[in-house]
Design a protein that fits this description.
With 864 residues, the protein is an alpha+beta fold. 22% of the residues lie in helices and 27% in strands. The protein has 16 helices and 46 strands. The longest helix has 29 residues, at 3-31.
Amino acid sequence: MSKSKKILLVLIGIVLIVALSLLGWWYFHYYSYNAYQQYLTSYEYEEGTDFVKLSEEESDVAGMVLAAENDTLKLYANVSTGEVAIVDKRNGQITYSNPVDADEDTIANGTNLSYLKSQLIVDYFNTSRTTGTYDSYSYCTSLDQLEVEAIEDGIRFIYTIGDMSASTGIVPEYISEETLNDVMSKLSEDDAKEVAKKYTTGTTSGLADGYLELLESAKKGASQLRKLNKYFEEAGFTTEDYLREMEGSGIEGAVPISFEIPLEYRLVDDGVEATIPMSQVVENGGGAIYRIQMLRYFGAAGTEEDGYMLVPNGSGSIIYFNNGKNGTSVSNYSEYVYGIDPLMAEYTVLENSENAKMALFGLFREESAVFATIEDGASLAYISAGVSGKINSYNYVYSTFVLRGNEKLSMFGTTGNEADLPIVEDEFYDANLTIRYTMLTEDDADYSGAANYYRNRLVAEGVLTAQESEEGEDIKFYYDILGGVNMTKYFLGAQYNGIYAMTTYAQAQEISEDLAANGITNQVMNFQGWMNGGYYHSVVDQINLPSALGSKSKLEDLSEALSEIGGTFYADVAFQKVTEISKRYVFSTETARYYGSGYIADFGLVNPTTLRQTSGLGYEENLYALISPKYLVRYINSFASKISNYDISGISLRDLASELHSDKKRTNVIDREEALDVVLGSLTEIEETGKNVLLNAANDYSFAYADDIINVPLTGNDYYIIDEDVPFYEMLLHGYVDYAGDVVNLSDSSDETDIILSLIENGASPHYMFSYQSSNEIKNTGVNYFYSTTYSNWSDDALYVYNEVNEALKYVNGAEMVKHEILSSNVRAVTYSNGVTIYINTGTADEKVSGVTVPARSYTVKGA
């Protein structure tokens, strides 16, 4: 062999080795990377036992037996209908799972009447991928298909939902030769011959090998079927045997669509937990569960009752019973908890609404209340509420769990309905769906009482920790600093992208010192655009400081300067939304994907012409991808290890506490509950860096990790069915986590008085956004929506708003917000645990309430 050939072979070998090494690295770095699984949680299933009612001299609930009892409550059950009742031993109040007088409803039609009697309503896809609905009353309890078991502190109902009756009785249309021979062996010789005559070699397409088919004449002959059923019963053949044979036949749709769903009730202190363990759910006949409405009418209130429902709309909202908003054109309240999964949402955005940030709801009467919290499965849920007079005579609020994703794919070359092919995920999500219904007595039977109860529970569970703030101490002043911005620049006529410093580290320190000189020392600075390319930064496996902003020492000096004046510095980071211009990120691999199409989850700003949320509006950096939870862990790990090298006081999480999405890649589906596990694990890792944590628009699952929260909702979405907004979110946090609302100088309102009164009512600090340079500098950049941030223009306004709000709220700093009252259409009263009450009047005339005169468009503090 010539020398040149040897060299060529060596080169080919080197190339192959390098290629295989790169292929191996790619495989292990991406496709086999499963570090996220360390955060996934599971749940245990308790095996049931034979149910035996508890003995008592006399039942408190007619027609029901005692299933469980603790010091506070009794759990009664009707083992035939699946209905339960909770008796509160403290006041004798009884809460029912279903209205007891449903049959007397004059509004509900046949379907809605069945819903009133149901505990579960199941929407599903059939084998043709069209949808259907089963309710547990029509398709289970009325068909005598309900089973019951005993569990610790409670009871389990097992619903077989679906019409299990067959036109042939228990005689299978398709049966294996082995099973047929077994049946005939248990009959007399003549009877066995009679049975054998009715089956023939299968001719139906798709019939499994070794199966026989019932003759058409036997299927249609009533007398023949009666005889065959008698023979099969004599042989000990059961409905379960029938289903087994039909399912094994290989014929699609041979078995009626049905679902086996367990629903458990367990007494827990002053409440009952209702649970569907999805690991035990069985789908039969090719049906695929899409979603389950759970206990839709639990505690429902009738037309003669006074009270309201609490829903997690923004900061919290109430809907009065029987408010008359029941017209056919009026939509019921319905919102996804933590917002809809972006991978299930439409690209077109028709309204700009605030996501629900709390997994809770409730019904409040004068003497008692039912307060519900979704303990497990919240990320899969949406909460709905309706008032009497529309579909029935009841006011109700409940949760629906979406358990399987689906998508419609457009088929090229076809039009109309045939153009969309429904694609349904293979498996439903294995989650423990749990709602805890707490029974509140008269003292706590309003939304303030529910907030106090729930706050105390969160404190006991270690989610919230009391602050050390003292009464009279100045409240915090929150402000974002716009640092580096990606901008088109030119050098010797050549165009390139570079960082423009809207605010350097040193200039941010100047702003901080100026605020301190004007009396604002309790500052919280959130520096945005401090690394990796500016505001729209690259992924954070590395941390690179732009030279245009200053050196590492200048950044650390800024953090130290804030600390010295009594403030806190936070460095802003986006983990889950990756800008299109990010470096070191493989969009095709690391981005979450849609299920059917396989498209990556790619979004942007809303185009005002098309209303699609996929536009960069002229700037590529406004487009972003949603990172798969699978790879989020890697970037969290990298950032956590590197941020320890920076002597700064805090980390601001732009999207980790508010963004929650799945990854529907077919080979590795990660549902939202699993994504939530990953996010919680990520928050824990950030917390373990030892730095303070600032959260943005935080969902309730992240409260335990927050030192500060910005952009909290101070109102709710303006849905017509809503009657009043209440600060339920704020009542949970005040005295435990400091917070601020949206950015004042970028808000829709230009009325400073409205802003000030809203902040005072909600116990919230002011929040501004500043830049050292003029906002005009960014008009041709991707952040041109920050149109009014120039510090020199806003400093006087910010000082005025802060002083006005501080003058009211400094008296309640660190105190719990224990009561919020709606005293008139314009006047609200907020009472704190230290005895201070603040009256707020948003009207244009003075008002006297509770002996206190509150000036127009102002407030009055009492008890300070």
